[in-house]
Amino acid sequence: MQYHDNGVSGVKIAYIGGGSRGWAWTLMKDLALAENFEGEVALYDIDYKAAQDNEIIGNKIREDFPEASQWSYKAVKTLKEALTDANFVVVSILPGTFKEMGSDVHTPEKYGIYQPVGDTVGPGGIIRALRTIPMFEEIGNAVREYCPNAWVINYTNPMTVCTRTLYRVFPEIKMFGCCHEVFETLKLLCKSLDQIGGIPGVKRNQIKANVTGVNHFTWITEAKYGNIDLLPLYREYANKRRAEGEKPPENDGNWMNRAFQTHELVKFDLFDRYGVIAAAGDRHLAEFCPKSWYTSSPEQVAEYGFGLTPIQWRLKDLDERLQKSRDLIEGKEKFKLDQSGEEGVLQMKAILGLGDMVTNVNIPNQGQIPNLPLGAVVETNAVFSADSVKPVCAGDLPETLYGLIAPIVAEQELVVEAGLTRDLELAFKAFMADPHVQTLSLQDARALFDEMVENTKEYLGEYFN
Amino acid sequence: MQYHDNGVSGVKIAYIGGGSRGWAWTLMKDLALAENFEGEVALYDIDYKAAQDNEIIGNKIREDFPEASQWSYKAVKTLKEALTDANFVVVSILPGTFKEMGSDVHTPEKYGIYQPVGDTVGPGGIIRALRTIPMFEEIGNAVREYCPNAWVINYTNPMTVCTRTLYRVFPEIKMFGCCHEVFETLKLLCKSLDQIGGIPGVKRNQIKANVTGVNHFTWITEAKYGNIDLLPLYREYANKRRAEGEKPPENDGNWMNRAFQTHELVKFDLFDRYGVIAAAGDRHLAEFCPKSWYTSSPEQVAEYGFGLTPIQWRLKDLDERLQKSRDLIEGKEKFKLDQSGEEGVLQMKAILGLGDMVTNVNIPNQGQIPNLPLGAVVETNAVFSADSVKPVCAGDLPETLYGLIAPIVAEQELVVEAGLTRDLELAFKAFMADPHVQTLSLQDARALFDEMVENTKEYLGEYFN
Amino acid sequence: MQYHDNGVSGVKIAYIGGGSRGWAWTLMKDLALAENFEGEVALYDIDYKAAQDNEIIGNKIREDFPEASQWSYKAVKTLKEALTDANFVVVSILPGTFKEMGSDVHTPEKYGIYQPVGDTVGPGGIIRALRTIPMFEEIGNAVREYCPNAWVINYTNPMTVCTRTLYRVFPEIKMFGCCHEVFETLKLLCKSLDQIGGIPGVKRNQIKANVTGVNHFTWITEAKYGNIDLLPLYREYANKRRAEGEKPPENDGNWMNRAFQTHELVKFDLFDRYGVIAAAGDRHLAEFCPKSWYTSSPEQVAEYGFGLTPIQWRLKDLDERLQKSRDLIEGKEKFKLDQSGEEGVLQMKAILGLGDMVTNVNIPNQGQIPNLPLGAVVETNAVFSADSVKPVCAGDLPETLYGLIAPIVAEQELVVEAGLTRDLELAFKAFMADPHVQTLSLQDARALFDEMVENTKEYLGEYFN
Amino acid sequence: MQYHDNGVSGVKIAYIGGGSRGWAWTLMKDLALAENFEGEVALYDIDYKAAQDNEIIGNKIREDFPEASQWSYKAVKTLKEALTDANFVVVSILPGTFKEMGSDVHTPEKYGIYQPVGDTVGPGGIIRALRTIPMFEEIGNAVREYCPNAWVINYTNPMTVCTRTLYRVFPEIKMFGCCHEVFETLKLLCKSLDQIGGIPGVKRNQIKANVTGVNHFTWITEAKYGNIDLLPLYREYANKRRAEGEKPPENDGNWMNRAFQTHELVKFDLFDRYGVIAAAGDRHLAEFCPKSWYTSSPEQVAEYGFGLTPIQWRLKDLDERLQKSRDLIEGKEKFKLDQSGEEGVLQMKAILGLGDMVTNVNIPNQGQIPNLPLGAVVETNAVFSADSVKPVCAGDLPETLYGLIAPIVAEQELVVEAGLTRDLELAFKAFMADPHVQTLSLQDARALFDEMVENTKEYLGEYFN
Asked: Between chains, do D393 and B222 touch, taking CB under 8 Å as contact?
């Protein structure tokens, strides 16, 4: 790595899951647009062919945009090759296939548990965690061996579990997890400022918010623009949208189109309940709340204006992205270079000492939320600075929210312990600790757990040794 | 107070709620049977006539049993008179009348919330707490003024809230709360020892158990008799009873008879879930668990073999006790002096330095359960010794249970804050934090709260100032 | 207050101690140089005449520099007048006169305790704290009454005690304490970077450091410039300076000139001991260390190259400043507008939402140093943002330092408690808890305490009621 | 092990350090006197011959006292043989020889550090800890392998370090450390009760005291006999003894006779300072206090009426004990069976479920002292019950004492870490953290450390690998 004129070249990024047809492309574009920041990206993927495709696609950017920052891409066959000499490690993997995701999301429906996403908590999130933890254990061990001083950035879900696993395996790791869910809520605050406060044009990073909670169940307890308190504006904004008859779009006959739409009705209801702002997508938030509030039936889900993500949607989406990959390789399509809004590249630059930034991350609790256990992974703001990511004290969780969040933290700590010890019996205890599973009898909980394990056992081999 | 020969005379006990036709009589008998322990009892009650009745009844014991320990009883008209010079203060009051209790228990049924008792948590427990807190605030202030060095023993529910209120009002108070629910579970362990282990005749206080949790949701995480681990025996015992078809008794057509019967099926189910022993009556335990487990309908309640306590039962029971009071006064009936099994008198003697004892009490957390907040009231063992009640370290709550208990602790802390500040809006937030209330929509929760407050507003006057 | 074009006008600052002939002038110049930031300053001082002088001096700046930011100054007679409508409150007062300071610093010398400053800890710091606490209690109460939403910035010593007092008196106060001692250490790191690393011209705020500890005994545990670790450079720098014979300057016969000189020899010795950087002036640091290290005699003080501050120096210095005040009023002298290096104005702008900043402040521990007690005032970095100053997590104090810092924290907590309760006996307990006082027998400690109290009793009247 | 009639036979005790000519004999006598408690003792010692001697001596008791409880003794050659099937493990070893102890105690004298004992903290205690930790690591590993369910009782110093090491090595160990120093202080309270209160004949275990702190720097913060508060009596008692001219005995020309005498003058001075009772021998207490209070010179030591323990005394004492051993083996001398006052056997019986007891022990902090770190070893009361030793909550350390104790806890935690990692550099950091070492310059501290390590390197081999 060489420093010069406010910039750095010779940076090496290892991308684990480098065959991705989503995040990887986003990163490629952001890197091309990053000023005074150049280097190489090693693409590692268990699907080596996919990594090779991305090597071609990535290197095409350099050719197509000679004026952009210059990054070279190379598919590699081993973690060792990827990690050696890396300055940063990006992890964005899919733990299992759509078959396993299908089981995660849909098996619980038999027992009346409807999960809009199923990748974080709830039965789906827990089973997904079980297959993810051994993968992150391997990654953690490899980082310790090959690049212990590199900074690791995770984008994989379940975020909390992945982050905790890396710190359990390699406590000295420099690592944080990123999620853009909070950003969307900040944008809602910008809309409130515009529509209620009459101040248009404010960007999300001009909003100063205190972020607290856990990933996908994150909260904003204070939000200011200059000296304007945004919570009263948000209240009016929410009331206005509801008064205007905010509701789910007309059913156009194609449920697939509903998959990712949300209408913030969950967010608005939670605001009424707690007086602070839930800062994640409605589809995630609903999974942390009592089932009776938003997901007691598909009809109630519809009523709250968000969709469940059917696996068929994901399959169709993948087909489209595979086609796009082919088009990019063959040059039928070219990237349009625009900022993604993701912060990964800004964070890397801040860590290299090129300018501080404050944003929200997932990282073990070291005091930032005093009434949650030390060590558990939480999401708050942090200061990114030279070789340093330090959380900002968010204060105690509001007492009114504590009862919703503390059990989730305990549940996820149990899941990680169960995963690291490959202990299915302990995993079942974690499963039973989930509020949605707690709507079932012990017998049904056991049957559901067993079926979900059976469905995904291809990825749970180590638990049966 | 005079010490002599291993004993003490001249003890003064203030009994707040001294018109009681239950606990007061129990105490009278226990005092009569307490060796080397004599003095006087000041009976204070807002129903002065009831206190006067008990004065007569109490003094009759002295006459009827001249060989028993000699205690004199006197009804007094003011807290000041009762407390001045008191060595001990017993608090056992009914916060409100059966009308209010009726609202506590039955109003939530409209919304599908079935509470077997309704005096601890859940909508009933919270509303009851709201009317209780100002009363305990008054008691705490009076103790500080008139007898700051006296030891206060509370028997009133909600136990946790009452105890916390006294410590909030007068932090230096010497006070603990007693509940006999754990004893019954220890007796079950004696039965296990007899029926499975083949060791009959063991008494409950020979069982050595680690008690932890909060009142009415208390747990035994270790239990030994000599070097025999009682948990495996309890497992066999539970399985045997279920194998033998343990179930609710035949319906004899009179639901009232079912009110206090329990068949331990909740306890056994919780043992299957958590591997540690729930140590309270099933009727209380069920109120802390997800509604879907045991109380989703009257039918499910019946299936688990416990009853809901209808207010009619309480009314009938009161009639009987009033009659008994008259009979005692008129000498138509006499007490039979037998040990109640309650420990209040033993505790007093230990506090006077007449012999240590270890038993479970409710007291603020000062480290005995490190993963619950300091200050919150918890139930664990404590050592009773000369002028001292010190909790025994129970260790962290099991991680698997944490998610059920931590929210309850937060909820009850909120209730106390709401009560002390007479803040109905905060009280509603506490209400919404209750797991059973969380089965409702925000609108229904509000409607239920408002109705319950309206029903009991006679006792909530200060909240409307 | 009006926002416009990245700036704010109509700001009201209340300056308590506004007759100051040091800090007040610094602030005046910084305000004049602050872009897009204008308003008025209310000067309150128990010496009203001094405040009036500063009113004249301050308003002259506006006349003399019409192109500078425009601030008007006004002496006021009451705290109420000063605080009403204030957006910011600056507190910089002298608790007592030089007579009391003389006793603080010099009385302990009779017992072999040499205090270079005597305003923070040690016998002098504690007695000073006792007279300061009632003053800050009054200020805290006034802020709550007249401007509860204003931000309060304290510059008065003992910083920790003043800050803690304000938060004890008014827990919801928005307040932090500022001290520039860390800045000088950052400049030393710049020198290391220049002289050892060969990188000249780096400014102190380009150094990224993790600050931790308590005021005047603050530590830098990590320091980076870009990806350069500054600790090894600092080690070489220290060794080089010592190798070159760093020592106190030749005695020019005038001890007064030595008063504020330091040669960093204390800092270098502490670095050898702990491997992390002590980040305050040597004169302050020495007061927190075992007496035998640096202050066992005036000779040892000289050997370590720092001076004790004699009160005569302060008297002479005051004379000079009084003369300067007259000259400024009469126009014989004019301010030269240059940046002071103080950050107060930048902090105010950040708090108004005009741009975030990260710097070190004194504020109650809310998790930023998990192994110190919550609530105790500590010094770490904090993020300044719109209406928000939130500490950055500094992590646990290094275990090796813990034993030096934890007792100081306990001592200062005791001092505050003693001050707020006006309890001289408790104050003596705090006094005895001081490591320097602990070099004395109980009898000598008592005699010293009594003498120091007697000497300063004019300011301790409330302790004798 | 067989239970019968309130008793147990077939108990196996492993005695590590079983060649001891002190503690081992004490245990033998206590076992012979223990009713309804019989079994065998395996004697393991690195000096196998000494263990064989004790085998003979122990078995003679059985022959000589056929009516006593019957215990058989057997010297064994390996830890494995000793520990296999053990129910209890007693550890009482001498880490090194008198040569090493001589260096521990006397080398620091060159630098003006006078240690009365030198086995706990201070330079001597730390160096002793370094050679002890690897031994206890071996013991901990062996317990895990051969008798993980046995209860381990340690009597070896440094007690805190030994206990912590066992729990670090084998966290699930059932283990506590016993020390009789508190007992002597309880006896002083009995004397106060007699001489001041006029109540003779009270036994130490009738005094109810709250014990807190760390081993050898233990404190009694509350003490009661019945409802009599003993602190005022103790104050009068201390004043009376000083008024009567309590002072060290006339020098009879033989310093050796002074070695273990104490006159409580340290204890009385500490009571004046803190208002709570220091509960260990003066010789130990002095090592935790600022050097200037009691040990700044041999003269000051004499003035406070306690002695330094010269190694010559220990050598002479050993000679006497070796002779006694020979006499016992040859039958020239016989034991007199009398209660030692030690509680080891009572504790074992309580653990077997034969009756609860409350006494003070050393055990990791699990909440019993909330303002000390969890995990650090502290000394408080504990309840001994069936298969259970649970600490009693002692509450926060008094704030006035905190500054003396917290650094010691940090120092000993560092020592254990240094020992377990065999890290001499970290050990030096711990050494520098000691208050007595902190009276030295860095250079002197280093020189002393190096010399003490050199002197004892025969036992520090693993630190040089």
From this structure: no
Say if residues B310 and B256 touch (Cβ distance below 8 Å): yes
* Confidence band, pLDDT 50/70/90 cuts, at residue D259: low
Q: Mean of the pLDDT values across residues C225-240?
A: 96
pLDDT tens, position by position, D360-376: 999 999 999 999 999 99
Instruction: Decide if B95 contacts B159 (C-beta within 8 A).
Output: no
- Tell me: cis bond preceding A158? Omega within 30 of 0 counts: yes
Structure-token pair, residue A454: 């059976």
Lowest-pLDDT range of B305-314, B323-332, C154-163:
B305-314
Query: Is B381 an interface residue toward D (CB < 8 Å)?
Result: yes
Q: Are B142 and B81 in contact (CB under 8 A)?
A: no
Which of A331-335, C217-221, D93-97 is most confident? C217-221
Q: Could you tell me if D430 and D160 are in contact, meaning their C-beta atoms sit under 8 angstroms apart?
A: no
Sketch out chain A's domains with CATH numbers.
2-111+118-180 (3.90.1820.10)
Q: Is D14 helix (H, G, I), strand (E, B) or coil?
A: strand
C461 burial level (CB within 10 Å; 0-12, 13-18, 19+):
exposed
Closest CA to C70 of C24, C20, C33, C44: C33
Residue C166 CB contacts under 8 Å (≥ 6 apart), including other chains: C136, C139, C140, C143, C152, C154, C173, C175
Q: Which residues of C touch A374 (CB under 8 A)?
A: 370
The model carries a pTM of 0.95
D37 touches chain B (CB under 8 A): no
Q: How confident is the model at residue D255 (pLDDT cuts 50, 70, 90)?
A: very low
Helix (H, G, I), strand (E, B) or coil at A38: strand
Query: One-letter amino acid identity for D196?
Result: I
What is the four-CA torsion angle of A428, A434, A435, A437, rounded to 10 degrees?
Answer: -40
The 3-state DSSP class for residue B59 equals helix
Kindly state the greatest CA–CA separation across chain C: 65
Give the closest of C222, C224, C391 to A353, CB-based.
C224
Distance from CA of C138 to the nearest CA of A (A): 27
User: What number of other Cβ atoms are within 10 A of residue D268's Cβ?
Assistant: 23
Residue B63 CB: number of other CB atoms within 10 A? 8
pLDDT above 90 covers what percent of chain A? Answer: 88
Q: What are phi and psi of A167, to 5 degrees?
A: -70, -30
Question: Using CB atoms, which residue from C371, C404, C442 is nearest to D272?
Answer: C442
Q: pLDDT tens, B274-323?
A: 999 999 999 999 999 999 999 999 999 999 988 877 788 888 888 999 99
Chains D and A touch (3+ CB pairs under 8 A): no
Q: What is the mean pLDDT of residues B166-173?
A: 98
Other residues' Cβ atoms within 10 Å of the Cβ of residue B248 = 17
A303 close to B (CB below 8 A): no
Residue identified by tokens 């006494």 is: D359
What does the pLDDT look like over C63-98, one tens digit per residue?
Answer: 999 999 999 999 999 999 999 999 999 999 999 999
Query: How many CA atoms lie less than 13 Å away from D209 in the CB half-sphere?
Result: 30
Q: A224 vs C388: CB contact, 8 Å cut-off?
A: yes
Spatial distance between the Cα atoms of D100 and C412, rounded to a whole number of angstroms: 41
Burial class (CB in 10 A: 0-12, 13-18, 19+), C374: middle
CA distance A94 to A98: 9
The two structure tokens encoding residue D272: 């004046």
- Please tell me whether residue C148 adopts helix, strand or coil conformation: coil
Contact B224, B280 (CB under 8 A): no
Taking the C-alpha atoms of residue A167 and residue A364, their distance in angstroms, rounded to an integer, is 8
The answer to whether residues A402 and A373 touch, using CB atoms and an 8 Å cutoff, is no
